[in-house]
Amino acid sequence: MSSLRPWYPSRPKPDRSLAACHRALIVPSYGMPADGHESALNLLVQNVVDYAIFLLDPGGHIITWNTGAERIKGYRAEEIIGKHFSTFYPPEDIAADKPGRELETAIAEGSLEDEGWRLRKDGTRFWANVIITALFDETGELQGFGKVTRDLTGRRATENALRESEERFRLMVQGVVDYGIFILDPGGHVASWNAGAERINGYTAGEIIGRHFSTFYPPEDIATDKPGRELETAIARGSLEDEGWRLRKDGTRFWANVVITALFDETGELRGFGKVTRDLTERRVAESALGERRRLLTHLVEAQERERRRIAWDVHDDSIQAMVAVGMRLQLLAAQLPEHSARLTQLDEAVTGTIGRLRNLVYGLRPPAIDRHGLVAALTSYLDDVVGPSGLRFGLTHALAAEPSAATAITIFRICQEALVNVRKHADASSVELTLTSEDDGIRVRVIDDGVGLTEQVANAAKEHFGLIEMRERAEAADGWWTVRGAPGEGTTVDFWVPSPGKRP
Predict the structure, then answer these.
(1) Pick among 3.30.70.100, 3.30.450.20, 2.40.400.10, 3.40.630.40: CATH of 176-279
(2) What is the pTM (predicted TM-score) of this model?
(3) Number of H helices, E strands in the chain
């Protein structure tokens, strides 16, 4: 019985007959009867479905065919046995004599492994991993070739998709200019560098790769080992976010938002860090300017309210009381001097009208109820005394967890006051509803009317005369928000929220 093995010395001219190949391809039994061993081997090979396993004669013609070969290539055994294995190669490989060169390489080197396109019976292509092994007998004579083929089309598609995804991601990262995105090795040295990092930090990749990322930190942070502590925190927590001063190549400082993410492999070993940096200098300057503007506005509003309160109390306690006294004396004189009664009554009516106007002035300056009885009482009084007489139906509902502080109460009152004036003058509404609710550690207020809605004319009039901007600025100065919405013919809603820092003392 012949024994087959790879063989490399110079070889005699092979017997390429099909019978010789069959004789040579009988494997030794190693204790099992030859026919039993051969039967078991054939059974194994024939039932493999994930690999095409077949034999070629020395000329490259197919002499065996298993189930896997039929599944992968589409040919039944009777259709393909006897044909040349070049049948599986696409035309461009046939033109380049790739099948012949592969057999020559297998003969010269004992075996050959290749990946490339192959053809199925229906003409479709699949990506194959192919191993061709030259088979020699004990005399060194070539008896044929063993060929094993795997269909790797799915794996190749997955690898290509992954490769393309990685390439797209790399291009995206490299092309981002608003973020510095780069990788640090486990020691904190820069290992990659994108266009955004170059724009923000000022270094080219050639200048910075390999240097420690502490290069970007100012001296006071280096002195406290802030870079090292940030890496330790990122390792312990998975990531770290920080804002602070960083240095550009030219030594200038910029305010940066930094996110450092520790990168671990599947075994839990630290492989490095991902670092994303944003230059927030302009935003910080803008926020600083806005904060300063809000502080100035707050001081101005507080000064205005103090002055309004002083004037309101002066008018209420002095001028109005004096006018009330004058009215009472006029009524007394009218009773004592009947001949002058008509003239005195006219004077009394004039005084009464003046008292009413002074009271409206006091409400405009500082409603007394807000200091004595709180926000809801002040709004109720304003609705009764100012809104009601204008002919508007009104309602007030509230669900407050606690009375707000005096500063919060006056902010809410002023915004409502301006919104209600706008409703009276421009909304052409028949009713208005106020709602106050405790929400998100603050108070949310809605002023809802059933008027003409937020038409362009109404919006322009409100901006010109009643200060939508002032309402919004009052809310924002208190660290709240304000908005107005409404479609033509569907009424208007002024909606705002301000934080309530504490219960009114």
Answers:
(1) 3.30.450.20
(2) 0.44
(3) 19, 13
